[in-house]
Design a protein that fits this description.
The protein is of the alpha/beta class. The protein has eleven helices and five strands, in the order αααααββαβαβααβαα. The chain has a five-stranded mixed sheet. A hairpin with a 5-residue loop joins β1 and β2.
Length: 266
């Protein structure tokens, strides 16, 4: 069964209009991008050779940086440097640093889409602004994204699909500082790692705040966001067996099994 269908056919209705905006496959590279890569790759190789802070970058890493900065090589290089500097501020991340968040089942991988991209489900109701500080959340994002990107590469992919479930989202979960930092990390530490970000069943308190939240996003990131309210439409995007029982799906995250599997770092 396919988990994330790539059809772009349109009929009537707002949903089909949104589907037509599906991001293109990461590996579809334009002539302009190839030319930018030819210019950018040697510069990056020279940079990584003279600083231990920045590890060697693959062709796909360079492509991510370039796309995130509109193929501007100067801005892409600056993004790379700043990305690694910010990562270094929170690294290394040990499992003990994020174990509390993991055990709350705030976010976890549920499987892969039809192209091999990992699907991450985020239960926003599990976050509490009076319990989870920004630093811990950032470390958790880095911990989770690093693991999931490795899984993506095993399946020949570079990007992930995020599903944010806001069904039980409330004022207890509404923390502007955390939301802003989370979006910042995804855009600046993991640029172009997100293929699609689904916001499911957002309540009024979130939709009312969306115009302000949207200001923290660049246009490229905004284009990847899809708002859905009905489970049938969610199932059209992500296979039902990758959705938790609370939304009528069949995936159950077993944190004890996860820890025993050896996936978790020690």
């Amino acid at each position: 069964m396919r988990a994330f269908r790539k059809t772009t056919s349109t009929t009537s209705g707002e949903f089909d209009d949104e589907r037509s905006k599906l991001p293109r496959d990461f590996f579809v590279v334009t002539k302009a991008e190839e030319e930018a890569l030819e210019e950018f790759k040697p510069v990056v190789e020279e940079l990584t050779a003279r600083t231990a802070l920045i590890p060697p970058q693959s062709r796909n890493d360079c492509l991510r940086m370039l796309r995130a900065r509109g193929l501007n090589t100067t801005k892409a290089l600056m993004l790379l440097e700043n990305s690694e500097k910010e990562r270094a501020e929170y690294s290394p991340v040990a499992y003990e640093d994020v174990k509390k968040i993991v055990r709350k089942s705030l976010a976890y991988m549920t499987g892969f889409d039809d192209a091999g991209r990992p699907v991450i489900y985020v239960d926003t109701d599990k976050f509490r602004k009076n319990e989870d500080d920004v630093t811990t959340i950032v470390k958790f994002i880095i911990f989770m994204m690093d693991e999931v990107v490795l899984e993506a590469r095993k399946h020949g992919q570079e990007q992930v699909v995020l599903v944010f479930d806001l069904t039980r989202f409330s004022l207890l979960s509404m923390d502007y500082a955390v939301i802003k930092k989370m979006l910042h990390v995804l855009m600046y530490v993991y640029p172009e790692r997100v293929f699609r970000l689904i916001v499911f069943n957002p309540p009024y308190i979130f939709t009312a705040a969306w115009p302000a939240i949207k200001l923290w996003l660049d246009e490229n990131s905004i284009r990847k966001i899809l708002f859905l309210r009905k489970t049938e439409k969610l199932y059209h995007e992500v296979d039902k067996h990758m959705i938790p029982p609370s939304l009528g799906g069949g995936f159950v995250f077993d944190v004890n099994k996860y820890e025993r599997s050896g996936t978790a770092r020690t």
